[in-house]
Structure formats: C-alpha cells, structure tokens
Amino acid sequence: MKKSEMTKAKPSAAEGLKELFVDELKDIVYAERALLKALPKMAKNASEPKLVEAIEEHIKVTEGQVSRLERIFEILGESSRGVKCEAMEGLIKEGESILEETEAGPVRDAGIISACQKVEHYEIASYGTLVAFARTLGEDEIASLLAETLAEEKDADKQLTESAYNSINFDAAEED
Ligand SMILES: [Fe+2]
Ligand SMILES: [Fe+2]
User: What torsion do the CA atoms of 92, 61, 55, 33 make, to the nearest 10 degrees?
Assistant: First the structure.
C-alpha cells in the first residue's frame, strides 16, 4: 500500500500493544453492558421455553463476565468505563429489527437465535484476541480470566446451535 493511502492516526492513538489491549477491553465491557440491557427483550420475545431459558441463563453469565472485566481493570489500574462499541450497537439494532420483521412463534425464535449467534461470534472473536494479547503481554492472570469468558461464549454459541437444530428451525420451516 502506498504511504498516502494509509489512515493517519488520531493524536489519541494507542502507542503500543498494552494500550491497544486496554482500548479493546473498554470496547468489550461496553458491549457486554449493552447486551445486558438488550437480552431481556430477546428473552421476552422468545416462545420456545428452552430458548427463553438459554437466554435467561446467558444474562446471568454475562453479569459474571462484566464483573470479571471489572476485576481485570482493577488489576491493570485502569477505569472500567467503557467506550462505545459500534459493532455491538449494530448487532443489537439488527436483533431488534428481526423482532419487528417476524410474528411471535417459531419464526421469530429462529430470528432471535440468528441474532444471538452473531453476537456470540463477535464476542468469541473479541475474547480470542484479548486472550492472545494478554498472553503476549505476560498478563497471565488476566489471560486466564479472559479465557474463562471465552469458554462461556463458546458454550453459549453451542447451546444456541443445539436449540436451533433441535426443533426451532424445524418448526419454523413448517410455518410456511
Ligand atoms: Fe459476553
Ligand atoms: Fe455472550
């Protein structure tokens, strides 16, 4: 790439990996808190009891993830104030429009699963990177805290896939 095509950094740009790491932690803590506000609406709109249960369970897990992030900021001596995560805002908006575009029942449930899985995949990508950054920086305690969250996100994704295959998508196909 020609030098002139490269984006010029803002004065506040991260100076090293550590700073980028903290910036990304601020992004994910914002994302998790935004999710905590958005998930109850998803649970209320789901019909299949197993799906409602899975979402409610993940709300509790997400609360734990926020506390874990707060603990990480404490270890780093940084404020736990988040910085707006555009990606999560977009995913949440998309999830809300799926609700408007479907009737309550199996089809909406399939849409909710799809929206939730996009969120989980964003989180899996984010925590995967954060674990790698923490290890590179020699922050082993933080790396293992983040790895716990990463495992929880993968678990949630698996559960959603299972509920999708176990009946919900099947019921949705029968609605036509
Ligand atoms: Fe999460
Ligand atoms: Fe999650």
Answer: -20
